[in-house]
Design goal:
41% of the residues lie in helices and 23% in strands. It has 249 residues and is α/β, with parallel strands linked by helices. It folds into two domains: 195 residues, Spore Coat Polysaccharide Biosynthesis Protein SpsA, Chain A (Alpha-Beta Complex), CATH 3.90.550.10; 44 residues. Helix 1 links the parallel strand 1 and strand 2. The longest helix is centred in the C-terminal third of the chain and has 22 residues.
Length: 249
């Protein structure tokens, strides 16, 4: 394997002390060291930065830490992408973690034909138990949001085609991927290996995230309007029912 390819890993953090150590240790466990790890922190008030600085002392590669207020997770990702100097960029959140050979397996696929986007398999955990294993065929990708911990993109692709749109609170990565796919200008490759693990939850798993996803699927002609309106109204009704049940008399 050619070890001349530099990898940039980006991790957005905010008050992530409970989980970020797993993320950092998973990068530390990689058997590939031509990498940089860019940690973009949103001014955490817990022990996140202490854990990150402890990790920086141990890492046999460059660790860059930015800690400042941001406008959400996609703003943090965009900052990290802007700082990245690697040929290939991976983004892993502070509650997710890589498989020990994730980078090596990704590079094996990438170096075969210099694909611009390489994505692999991912385990989804719910309450510390595996709830789902996702594998991305091109058809699956059009209908579902790709979990970015298992996805690597060339820095040149971000430079040529732009980063994440901050108007979306939970689905900007899905918007970015659908845009790239629909334009037909980007080469995609599936890596048939397990790459990462992800804890379910957060904004993308909420009804707001679901409605953003529906809007994007309609915009990119992946679903009919009747489907969009039925499931959008259904999700709003679900919100109302939950609010009613949460009221204590």
């Amino acid at each position: 394997m050619d070890t001349s390819v530099k990898i940039s890993i980006i991790t957005p953090t905010y008050n992530s002390a409970k989980t970020v150590r797993d993320t950092l240790n998973s990068v530390l466990a990689q058997n590939y060291t031509n990498l940089e790890h860019i940690i973009v922190d949103g001014k955490s008030t817990d022990d996140t930065l202490a854990i990150v600085n402890e990790y920086k002392e141990k890492a046999p590669y460059e660790v860059r830490i930015v800690s400042e207020k941001d406008n959400g997770i996609y703003d943090a990702m965009n900052k990290g992408i802007g700082l990245a100097t690697g040929e290939l960029v991976g983004i892993i959140n502070s509650d997710d973690w890589y498989e020990p050979d994730a980078i090596e397996k990704t590079l094996r696929t990438y170096q075969h034909q210099k694909y611009e986007i390489v994505y692999g398999m991912i385990r989804i955990y719910q309450d510390e138990k595996i709830s789902e294993i996702q594998f991305y065929s091109h058809e699956f990708m059009l209908q579902h949001m790709i979990c970015h911990p298992s996805c690597f993109v060339t820095k040149a692709t971000y430079e040529d085609l732009g980063t994440f749109d901050l108007k979306y609170r939970s689905s900007s990565d899905y918007d970015w991927m659908l845009k790239r796919y629909s334009e037909g200008k980007t080469t995609f490759s599936t890596n048939y290996d397990m790459i990462a693990n992800m804890r379910a939850g957060g904004m993308s798993g909420s009804n707001l995230g679901y409605r953003e996803t529906l809007k994007l699927q309609l915009e990119y002609h992946q679903i009919p309007k009747s489907y969009f309106w039925f499931y959008t109204i259904k999700s709003h009704i679900g919100d109302i029912v939950r609010k009613i049940h949460s009221v204590r008399f």
